[in-house]
Amino acid sequence: MNTFDFKNPTHIFFGKDSIQEIAGQIPEDAKILLLYGGGNIKKNGIYQQVTTALKGRDVIEFGGIPANPEYAVLLQALGLIKAQKIDYLLAVGGGSVIDGTKFLSAAALYEGAEPWDILKKNIRTLKGLPFGTVLTLPATGSEMNSGAVITRKETQEKLAMGGPGLFPQFSILDPQVIQSIPERQLANGITDAFSHVLEQYMTYPIGAALQDRFAESIMQTLIEVAPKVLKDPTDYVAASNFMWSCTMALNGLIQKGVPTDWAVHAIGHELTAMYGIDHARTLAIIAPSHYRFNFDDKKEKLAQYATRVWNITEGSLEEKAQKAIDKTEDFFHSLNIATRLSEYTSNYEGTAEKIAQNFTERGWVALGEHKTLTPDKVEKIVRMSY
Amino acid sequence: MNTFDFKNPTHIFFGKDSIQEIAGQIPEDAKILLLYGGGNIKKNGIYQQVTTALKGRDVIEFGGIPANPEYAVLLQALGLIKAQKIDYLLAVGGGSVIDGTKFLSAAALYEGAEPWDILKKNIRTLKGLPFGTVLTLPATGSEMNSGAVITRKETQEKLAMGGPGLFPQFSILDPQVIQSIPERQLANGITDAFSHVLEQYMTYPIGAALQDRFAESIMQTLIEVAPKVLKDPTDYVAASNFMWSCTMALNGLIQKGVPTDWAVHAIGHELTAMYGIDHARTLAIIAPSHYRFNFDDKKEKLAQYATRVWNITEGSLEEKAQKAIDKTEDFFHSLNIATRLSEYTSNYEGTAEKIAQNFTERGWVALGEHKTLTPDKVEKIVRMSY
């Protein structure tokens, strides 16, 4: 097991009708900016619950944060924060709204001239404007971590940021929100969370027995609840387990003391930037090819995953490992998630070269847990995913 | 799954040579009280590492905190804290030293006349004197939670306290400390951590799939590493997994959203108070009888535990459940932990009646996850454990 440090101070309120807890978590005298996305919260009752809880408080709203939170839109919100002297942010939405809010939390206190530098120059945020979240779409885990991914359309960039100052002060997780989420987005959420676990698990054995088992626990739970959640989003028990699994998949715990990969995300982000493919689906496109291409590096963990998560007990280590990749692809298919780039765009020729070129230009010498995945290898993986 | 809230702000530094991290975690100008137990830390090099890390700082020492931290001793330390205007506590030890330090953290800022009231009147501590810990004995999980248990010899009481103000600001977990721990204490640590998981798991099914799997993960890991740790305490991988399992067993995570029991601890504490039996061993004495006595209430979870943790796949639900209790007892025996009260004292007659009487006098109407375990039932369980 590797040396690590771990601290996660986010206060989670989990369960039915927990939205009312926000009243006690935001200082009475705060000037609050309520941030949300496309306005679904006004249809599904969540907006009503939030505004009821904040009745009598000083609240300004900013809606319209798009999926893959867009820098240009966030700059408008940043202007509002400064003009109105906002001192507390409340994100009501999924990963995009929460990630956008994290950028704003950092940018509001950033002293440089160009907020994009926070992403471009990878500046860690030690102190941000305080914020809380009301999660409306389980998927990214952003509600209990300190990272964010921001997109800039004009340059086709999608970059990550973070720092210990960017943990939400509190996050509200009410599994009842799942009832109003379209099936497509539920499938994305399951795929996203499952992929997060894979990125932190599918590397090589390092003797971190408990972290491995926790990761396997999350994957087993997601596999178990996925059909129930998709069939009946009002199934509160399934919704609860889905929601908590998504949070635990990326709150830092299972990555501590182990090597992590994240190449699938790095490559997947390019597909979203180029074709607008849903984030989760890009992961399902890249992961199987990535594991097949890097089979020798990953076969021990693939075989462990085969046995413990998919109950594959027959065959050699290599056979189990191969079957585990097939099972993973089957799982994505069972969620109606296509795993080939050509199923999303007919315009895929040249994608592999373009992504390799992007990585080279950005100076990303090598990805993966061994830092051996050079742009030429990335090109091959993407081509295997066509 | 039940509604819950969860927050754990303790900063963990885990791994080889992590003791040096304390220098960066305690404010430069703090007046520090270094607290420890019987002085083993002066023999195993830990005291040396701590004082080297704190070189040049304003540090006073208080040693001699006994196992089952004794109120009278802690009052001496409290006097020192007040006389010397101490503003930071550093616990270097196992659960007893850390629990004692939590009491001091609370008592230092307590405004009532009688510090024992914090325990007697169950006063929750919202703000305590800040403190950190260097863990020298994995077992209790006290290094990453906000609870403590304090003993008062003169009244034969052993009571719990806690509150959100009592999380350590940081805890240092260096698995190398295990090398110098006597086998008896290692066995106690494994038993203690395993029992903590059982208290939060062995109740009834409530559809908390992820919490169940996390609990099972910790038990599987403890079972796997126990023989390795006992055979060779210098096995760093085994030591790491043992240490992290103990912390995760009682840092709040696996108890969220599920019913918990804690009757085994409540009864066990009485045995320690009456006979001075090691805390962990009292749990091993009581748990099997407790599960046999409350078999109908617990058989579903016992059977799930049988299958997932002990790989018992044959037989009816009841048969699996029974075998799981036997397996648990066998596990304690494999650690050289006796599971009968009569193996610890020949003076056991009347123990059951005395404990039932204590509970009645304290107004403890009923224990357990269903709050149905009245003193007369407790009496039967204790008698079954003779």
Description:
With 386 residues, chain A is of the alpha/beta class. Chain A folds into 2 domains: 166 residues, 3-Layer(aba) Sandwich (Rossmann fold); 203 residues, Dehydroquinate synthase-like - alpha domain (Dehydroquinate synthase-like, alpha domain, Up-down Bundle). In chain A, 47% of the residues lie in helices and 12% in strands. The first copy, chain A, contains 14 helices and 8 strands. Chain A has a 6-stranded parallel beta sheet, with helices on both faces. The first copy, chain A, has a two-stranded antiparallel ribbon with strand order 6-7. In chain A, strand 2, helix 2 and strand 3 form a beta-alpha-beta unit. In chain A, helix 6 runs parallel beside helix 10, helix 7 crosses helix 11 and helix 13 runs antiparallel to helix 14. The relative contact order of chain A is 0.11. The interface between A and B is large, with 40 and 40 residues. Strand 1 of chain A pairs antiparallel with strand 1 of chain B.
Residues in β-strands, percent of chain A: 5-15%
* Gyration radius over CA of chain A: 20 Å
Shape of chain A from CA axes? globular
Helix content of chain A: 40-55%
Oligomerization status of the protein chains: homodimer
CATH class of the largest domain in chain A: Mainly Alpha
Count of helices of chain A? 14
